[in-house]
Amino acid sequence: MLKALTKKETYIRYLKSLKFSLYCMTHPLDGFWDLTHEKRGTYAAANTILIITLITRILKLRFTSFLFIQVYWEDINIFLYLASILFPLALWVVGNWGLTTLFDGKGRLGQVYMATCYGMAPYPIIQIPLMIVSNFVTIEEGQFYSVLSMISLIYCALLIVAAMGQIHDYSFGKNILFTIASLFAMLIMVFILMIFFSMVSQGVAYFVSLARELMFRI
Question: How many domains does the chain have?
Answer without folding.
Answer: 1
